Amino acid sequence: MIAFKLHKCGHPDTHKLFKITGSKSESNRWLILQSLFSDLVLNNLSNSDDTRYLKKALDSTDHILDIGHAGTAMRFGTALFASQAGKSVVITGSDRMKERPIGILVNALQSIGAQITYLNKEGYPPLEITGKKLKGGTVTLQANVSSQYITALCLIAPVLENGLEIELIGEVTSRPYIEMTLSILKKIGCDIQWDENFDDNVEKISIQPIKNVDKLSQTVESDWSSTGYWYTWVAFQNIGYKISLESFYNDSMQGDSKLQDIYKNFGVETSFEGNKLILTKTSDTIDQQLHFDLTEQPDQAQTIFVTCLGLGINVELTGLHTLKIKETDRIEAMKEVGSRFRESVITTTSDSIKLILPHNSKLLHDFVVDTYHDHRMALSFAPLCKFTDVQINDPMVVTKSYPYYYEHLKSINVSITEI
Ligand SMILES: O=C(O)C1=C[C@@H](OP(=O)(O)O)[C@@H](O)[C@H](O)C1
Ligand SMILES: C=C(OP(=O)(O)O)C(=O)O
């Protein structure tokens, strides 16, 4: 296994412009829809592994499809292949993917006639799928585990003869990702109703079928989730420091665009010049005790945790119940690696993490970041090289979402050596 050392970089270059590629969430939704409606033309698709894996699986005629670590590709692909008559595939992924549950989605698909069997452990990939022409109807599923199950069903709904009524039981998690899916479906002409008060503790999404989509060209907005690492970076710098990122819209479909508000807490202001996003450090006055509920921005947990760790701010993050089934158990990973950076007391529950720093908490020596096959461990902890050398083990995990991350860091003067 290789490791990178990011050498302490006290005075990085400022006024840089980075081109971030398309959102992997938007890209993977559009790719599923493009395989259903070939008249869609897509621009600025993500260059992430997750999008490359999905594209490869969709273009493949192989029986065994490996989608690596890509949760969206696994969940969206399962629904797609199950609804395609004549298709017969085994869908599998990395070792970690085989530990990420999919039973809630499989049950919902089976309830409308899908033929899916587990090849290994009940409720987990790999899956054997024999595609069938599904008619649709009503499905009921738990909504508090992963929104990706719901998106997967929504994406195939337009081609089901009777459309789909999706009853969501319990508190809906990662809601902005479902909103993104429905916004995209509306763009291709779907008629959708979302009744948030359908019944006690139940919401209902109804999607009508459509025959075809008129020729439509779509440019995917760049990835807000990747901007989080630059928000952290700017938060660590002196007043006046700025960097720019493109191409972003201020009416984004991505829930992580909430970073604009969140980082005001850390003295980072966001402005737009056309589609250019400008992040500027404007203030050093920061509350020393913060709390964020990240039910709607689960992918930013590590980012915000590291920002607080670097700035020496006590914080409690809640709403993290989905983190245990992501690329690694992210709550435990943050606790372990965070405690190696500086003197601190870090406590966790199954859905929260709390960071308490003693007065004048000192940085510890020889800071090492284990990444546990999770891109967001490397991406989020790297900016701590503002304060000390950072060793990142298995650093290329970043390609899951942000392949050019280290090139971008190098271009602002971060020295990186392989060890
Ligand atoms: O639909 C999507 O594109 C995603 C939904 C979220 O997952 P959960 O709904 O499982 O929290 C998010 O964490 C993931 O990175 C991408
Ligand atoms: C959780 C993530 O991705 P996925 O679930 O699609 O693998 C992520 O990118 O942080």
Automatic annotation (TrEMBL):
Pfam families: EPSP_synthase (PF00275). GO terms for molecular function: 3-phosphoshikimate 1-carboxyvinyltransferase activity. It catalyses: 3-phosphoshikimate + phosphoenolpyruvate = 5-O-(1-carboxyvinyl)-3-phosphoshikimate + phosphate. It comes from the Bacteria. Its EC number is 2.5.1.19. InterPro entries: Enolpyruvate_Tfrase_dom, Enolpyruvate_Tfrase_sf, EPSP_synthase, RNA3'P_cycl/enolpyr_Trfase_a/b. Pathway: Metabolic intermediate biosynthesis; chorismate biosynthesis; chorismate from D-erythrose 4-phosphate and phosphoenolpyruvate: step 6/7. Keywords: Amino-acid biosynthesis, Aromatic amino acid biosynthesis, Transferase. Gene3D superfamilies: Enolpyruvate transferase domain (3.65.10.10). One of its GO terms (biological process) is aromatic amino acid family biosynthetic process. The keyword Heme does not apply. The keyword Amino-acid biosynthesis applies. Residues 60-409 form the Enolpyruvate transferase domain. Belongs to the EPSP synthase family. This is 3-phosphoshikimate 1-carboxyvinyltransferase. It comes from Nonlabens tegetincola.
